[in-house]
Amino acid sequence: MWRKAVVVVWAALVPVVASGQAPRTDTSILADIAREVEQYAGFTVFDEVSARVEDGRVTLRGRVTMPYKVDVIGARVSGVGGVRDVRNEIEVLPVSQFDEALRYRISRAIYGNPAFWHYASMACPPIHIIVEGGHVTLTGVVNSEVERMLARSLASGTGAFSVASRLVTDAVVRVDHEK
């Protein structure tokens, strides 16, 4: 009986010892996933991807502007150490000349405003502009409540049918992270 239990425990530890690493936490896997998505050159301010990790199983959600991005992002995430499985629920936004023009108008309005110049110079600016059928959703993280309200105000003056803001501040993200 004890010999069988020892063999089972030893067999369970062999992959960890063989790899020389302890099992990764979901938090560290999530951080690597975020880095992989942000470093993908095809990921722009017009795309939005979020991930959830439970025991190494990843669920990707969001919306992107081109179909090939769904596969590329899924492949990049599956290559992250500790990821066991990827469930890719990323949707592709419909093609529309009106939406495309609106994306660029809103982008110029927000990132052309002096209050947001420090974001515009980043490799992956934090305010994402999702446009579908003339309806706009702003997502991402900003430094303050003033920036959150200003971004929404600037987007509202561009001819969009509606503007929803899912922008959050750094303070809210820090509080959520501490929980």
Tell me what the structure shows.
The protein folds into 2 domains: 20-92, Alpha-Beta Plaits; 97-178, Histidine-containing Protein, Chain: A (2-Layer Sandwich). It has 179 residues and is an alpha/beta fold. Strands 1-2-3 form a 3-stranded mixed sheet, with helices on one face. A 3-stranded mixed sheet has the order 4-5-6. Helices cover 47% and strands 25% of the residues. The longest helix has 18 residues, at 2-19.
Question: Keyphrases for this structure?
Answer:
single chain; 179 residues; alpha/beta; Alpha-Beta Plaits; Histidine-containing Protein, Chain: A; 2 domains; three-stranded mixed beta sheet; 7 helices; 6 strands; 47% helix; 25% strand
Secondary-structure arrangement, i.e. CATH architecture of the largest domain: 2-Layer Sandwich
Label the overall shape: globular
Quickly count the helices: 7
Report on the biggest sheet: 3 strands, mixed
How big is the Rg? Answer: 20 Å
Amino-to-carboxy terminus distance:
42 Å
> How many extended strands?
6
* Domain unit count: 2
CATH class of the largest domain: Alpha Beta
Strand content: 25-35%
Helix content: 40-55%
Q: The CATH topology of the largest domain, please?
A: Histidine-containing Protein, Chain: A
Unreliable spans: 1-18
